[in-house]
Amino acid sequence: MLQVVGGDHAAFESLVGRYQDRLIGFFYHMVRDRTTAEDMAQEVFLRVFRSRERYTATARFSTWLFRIAHNLASNQRRGLARRREIPLANSAGFDDEVRAEDQILAEKSALMPTRLIDSKETQDVVREALDSLNERQKTAVLLHKFEGLSYQDIGEIMGLNVVAVKSLLSRARGKLKEALERHI
Amino acid sequence: MSTSPQKIDDDDPVDERLTQLVSYLDGELNDTQMDDVEQSLINDPDMRSHADILSRTWAMLDTLGEVSASKNFTKATLATISIDAAATQHHTPGSRFNSLLGALARYKVLPCFLLGVLGATAGFFISEQAHTRRLQRSEEFAAEFAKDHLVTQHLDMLLKDDLYRIVPDAEALRQLKLQVDPTNDGKENP
Fold first, then answer.
1. What's the CA gap between A138 and A145, in Å, rounded?
2. Which residue among B15, B64, B102 places its CB closest to the CB of A29?
3. Shortest Cα distance from B109 to chain A (angstroms)?
4. Could you report the predicted ipTM of this complex, rounded to two decimals?
5. What total number of domains does chain B contain?
6. In a mutagenesis test of the A interface, which of B55, B78, B107, B109 is the best target, namely the one with the most A β-carbons within 10 Å?
7. Contact: A20, B69; criterion CB under 8 Å
8. Closest Cα to residue A133, out of A120, A121, A145, A115?
9. CB A2 within 8 Å of CB A57
10. Which of the pair, B65 or A160, is modelled with greater confidence?
11. In this predicted structure, what is the pLDDT of residue B101?
12. Does the reported pTM lie above 0.80?
């Protein structure tokens, strides 16, 4: 990142290459739409480039990057909630695309007597469980599970202290347990 | 980051044991807290079962898999950024000044520069004071020296104290009948 600050465009390209999948994954799990996720990731890189001169080496780059991503996701969510143009993952309109967990299970029960659900179905169930979390819980889970960030880093990204992150993740894990334990 | 307690929007009450257990599974506890949780896990089968389910449901999130960027994402992103950068450069007349300010802030040059200016000003005033004091001292010394020099110049005469002893006062001199100097054209010495 310091090379990018110094005006090295090749370094910025390598930075995009290194973090693009992580960012797109983060947004995809948030909005469940690939195009929107890519647009949001692109917007994050644009913001990183615009504010590169404000970056100080005291903060870890990934923390700084995901703080921008979290702010963008929160703003977008607020904006969308006001305009109600594109429903997000756990908004009411998303039900057409993603079937309810019980519906999936009922269908599969009829088709498969052994009641074994394959990996696609497991994915659907897990997605439903993830979507049952509120935005903050979901963000904390995604940052911890998929980015491997510590409570401290998550706190810095979300503007919370470590105790608050602990509570947030505890509640989230409790909810996930409730939603998923019968599928273990 | 702030360490003060913050409000969580969630309505559910926090179960302290669950919180500690989750933090334990996430490797976020210190040694003492870890010992406490491990002790509970040894003694409480329900807690063991709870921890097991938590771990397994957490592991289920792995089924979501990783998401990769589309093929032209990098190119498209870099192109968008180049266009944006060019547009920003074109529309911002003070961009050079802003980037200079940015560089100053980034490298902490501004505080160093201000400190340097302050230090130089203080140094200038101190040296100015010292110079003035030195000048005053030189003048005093010169005056002293001039006085001393006058004394030195007339030292021979001043040392002739026998003259004062011989000539006690002006009246005595008048009474003295000094010999007339033949080169003085008959005029008496004063």
1. 10
2. B64
3. 14
4. 0.76
5. 1
6. B78
7. yes
8. A145
9. yes
10. A160
11. 67
12. no
| Interchain CB contacts (distance < 8 Å): A and B | 156
Any idea which fold A1-90 has?
A: Rna Polymerase Sigma Factor; Chain: A (1.10.1740)
Q: How far is CA B8 from CA A5, A90, A143, A169, B23, in A?
A: 36, 20, 18, 11, 17
Put simply, the answer to whether B19 touches A156 (Cβ < 8 Å) is no
Report long-range pairs for B13-19 (Cβ below 8 Å, ≥24 apart). B14/A167, B14/A170, B14/A171, B15/A170, B15/A174, B17/B47, B18/A170, B18/A173, B18/A174, B18/B50, B19/A166, B19/A167, B19/A170
- Taking the Cβ of residue B164 and every Cβ of chain A, the question of whether any pair is shorter than 8 Å is answered with no
Is B23 a member of any domain? yes
Does residue B25 sit within a domain? yes
In a domain, B24, yes or no: yes
Range of the domain at B23: 16-58
Q: pLDDT at position A82, please?
A: 64
Q: Does a structural domain hold residue B34?
A: yes
> How many angstroms separate the Cα of B168 from the Cα of each of A73, B106, B164, B176?
115, 90, 6, 11
